[in-house]
Design brief:
Largest sheet: 6 strands, mixed
Number of domains: 3
CATH superfamily of the largest domain: HUPs
Structural class: alpha+beta
Shape: globular
CATH topology of the largest domain: Rossmann fold
Strand content: 15-25%
CATH class of the largest domain: Alpha Beta
Strand order of the largest sheet: 3-2-1-4-6-5
CATH architecture of the largest domain: 3-Layer(aba) Sandwich
């Protein structure tokens, strides 16, 4: 009883803090049927009873294990008992190739994100625990991760206007299960959590042995928290360097003042260059350290480099410009969706159908003899958007002023600076 009351009291305070500024609408809770998420759901519903807010539970059936349906049914039954809405989303997008766990994780986020938008939900809680912090730290330590990789999970992050919160990061898995037992609430144990074929299971087993040496979950999580503070300080320093040495352009490139950039500490150079590549190519993941270091060495030596879907252009004394690599841009039919995940293209009525968007490229630039008058560099124009119809160039708005079509960058160039800080 004492654990139950203490856990509920601590959870309520944390939940209140994380939900500050989210209004009075429903709160989403991601539930799989496992112990962590079932405890989260029970705690959230108990919290909601005194806060005049409703809880909407959501689970994702990836269709990969026959037991998944029974696990989701546990969550549905609990929701029925405590008067909470429950929705099941289904994913069938895996083609048998690639990293299954990563694809399933990304699909889960996308499915829940769309569900939340449809339901008018602005915040979703997940059941990541203190043990998840520790296990993630160990896994990334084994991969040789630096400060960013070793820093703790954020307790709150926003993607596509949806806030994801993790209110259980300071609570152990064991305490959550004790809480469920005290409430007579059952949960499902995913059999893959015992399968040593999965890396996380191996590290979970190793964590039990490390605890005997004083490296328990709380100690590892505390170290991850200190790494998070160090990461934040480095991001602030990188932002300062970007203000002095970087300029994001309306053609979607990033220019780096050579002297100011190369005079900075190497760690800040690597961070700013990595961020520039990610911003230009719209990458979700940071560039790997070794090829990033090689690219930085080439730039310092006045040589061009290609990395992460970008061409990094420089000279012995010229500024550095991070441009989109033309060959990395996939053509797109029509102008309805964002092109290259960053360009909004609009064409005047009567332009015609069967339009194709693609990077301007060498052949397109040849059809724009006055491109030098645009003021843009050759490499930036090669990767810029262009509109084609039956292999005929209709518009290249950055190379030649167009009355037919115009393009705009999404998000705007100012996002380059503001997106360096991850939290």
């Amino acid at each position: 009883m004492q654990l139950t009351q203490e856990l509920e009291r601590e959870f309520n305070a944390e939940f209140d803090r994380l939900l500050t500024g989210t209004g009075d609408g429903p709160v989403g809770v991601a539930v799989s049927g496992g112990g962590d998420s079932m405890a989260l759901l029970a705690l959230a519903v108990s919290w909601a009873e005194t806060r005049n807010r409703s809880i909407h539970a959501v689970g994702v059936d990836h269709g990969l294990r026959p037991e998944a349906a029974d696990e989701i049914a546990l969550a549905a039954n609990l929701c029925g008992q405590i008067g909470c809405r429950h929705t099941v989303l289904r994913w069938s997008g895996w083609d048998g190739s690639g990293n299954l766990q990563d694809q399933a994780r990304q699909a889960r986020k996308q499915l829940i994100g769309r569900w939340a938008q449809e339901q008018g939900i602005s915040v979703v809680a997940t059941g990541h625990t203190l043990d998840d912090q520790a296990e993630t730290f160990l896994m990334r330590l084994a991969r040789g991760s630096g400060v960013d990789g070793l820093s703790a999970m954020f307790d709150s992050e926003t993607f596509d206007d949806l806030r994801w919160i993790r209110p259980l990061l300071s609570v152990s898995r064991a305490d959550l299960r004790s809480y469920l037992q005290g409430k007579n609430i059952g949960w499902a144990d995913d059999p893959t959590n015992l399968d040593p074929a999965y890396a996380r299971v191996k590290f979970r087993q190793a964590a039990e042995q490390l605890a005997e040496l004083g490296l328990d979950a709380r100690t590892l999580a505390a170290t991850a928290g200190r790494m998070q503070r160090a990461r934040h300080a480095l991001e602030l320093a990188t932002t300062d360097l970007a203000r002095d040495a970087a300029q994001a352009t309306d053609i979607g490139t990033v220019k780096l003042a050579r002297k100011e950039f190369l005079d900075a500490p190497e760690e800040l150079q690597l961070r700013l260059l990595s961020h520039a590549i990610g911003w230009v190519a719209r990458q979700d993941y940071r560039t790997r350290l070794e090829p990033l270091q090689q690219a930085l060495a080439a730039l310092a030596g006045g040589r061009n480099a290609t990395l992460g879907g970008c061409i990094l252009v420089t000279g012995q004394t010229a500024p550095i410009e991070v441009c989109r690599e033309p060959n990395a841009v996939q053509p797109s039919k029509g102008v309805d969706a964002l092109f290259d995940n960053r360009w909004q293209v609009r064409c005047a009525p009567g332009t015609g159908g069967d339009l194709t968007l693609r990077a301007l490229g060498e052949d397109g630039l040849l059809e724009c003899p006055g491109w030098r008058d645009s003021g843009y560099s050759r490499w930036s124009l090669l990767g810029s958007p262009s509109v084609w119809q039956n292999d005929e160039l209709i518009a290249a708005p950055f190379a030649v002023r167009s009355r037919t079509c115009d393009v705009s960058l999404v998000p705007q160039p100012q996002s380059f600076l503001t997106s360096i800080l991850k939290h």
